[in-house]
Amino acid sequence: IKAMKGYSYELELPENWRMSKLFHADRLRKDSNNPLPGQEYERPNPDIVNDEEEWEVENILSSRIHYGKLQYMVQWRDWDPNPEYYNADNFINAPFKIRDFHEQNPNCEGPPARLKNWEKAFAREEFLKPHKDDNKPAHPLKGLVTSHRRK
After folding, report:
1. Which ranges carry the Chromo domain (predicted)?
2. Is 125 a residue whose pLDDT tops 90?
3. pTM
4. 71: helix, coil or strand?
5. Contact indicator for 134, 91 with CB cutoff of 8 Å
6. In Å, how far are 9, 18, 19, 22, 39 from 4, measured between CA atoms?
7. Which helix (H) or strand (E) element contains residue 10?
8. How far is residue 109's CA from residue 57's CA, in Å, rounded to a whole number?
9. Do residues 137 and 111 make contact, with C-beta atoms less than 8 angstroms apart?
């Protein structure tokens, strides 16, 4: 930022950019990877659950089957959006978020085959050991696309 004029800011731009260097304040936002001084946002520390770091799920955005494994894209509480998918077994301690997501989105892939086990363990405050079916969808053929040959 070179200077402020009223509600507008003059920016330092490369010389080869052929555009106005004056921008209204409502057109500007901080770069989350390079905030201005005083705009530092301290990320919350993860909770330690069963000797592992855990972050709180704010919202489940979508699900998919990737190489036979059920995965979820989520919005983490107090974090910027993340377009990455994570295996279902990462959400064993958020079973009710998963259940709610699938109740609201019945056509999405999933839920996990062991979701009921996860809910019971969560209600009893027990920790489940990893299981080979934790990343399996309850309905593995749900998203299967079939083709019909013309006769």
Report:
1. 55-113
2. no
3. 0.62
4. strand
5. no
6. 4, 20, 18, 9, 18
7. strand 8-10
8. 18
9. yes
Q: How many residues are there in the chain? A: 151
Alpha-carbon Rg for the chain, nearest whole angstrom, is 23
CA–CA dist 45, 140 (Å, integer): 36
Contact between residue 94 and residue 112 where contact means Cβ atoms under 8 Å apart: no
Reported as a single tens digit per residue, the pLDDT across 46-104 is 667 667 666 778 899 999 999 999 999 999 887 778 889 999 999 988 999 999 999 99
DSSP 32-65: TTSPPTT---PPPPPEEETTEEE--EEEEEEEEE
Ranges 10-14, 22-26, 113-117, 138-142: which has the least confidence:
138-142
Say which amino acid occupies 92: I
Q: Could you give the domains of the chain?
A: 1-30 (no CATH), 49-123 (2.40.50.40)
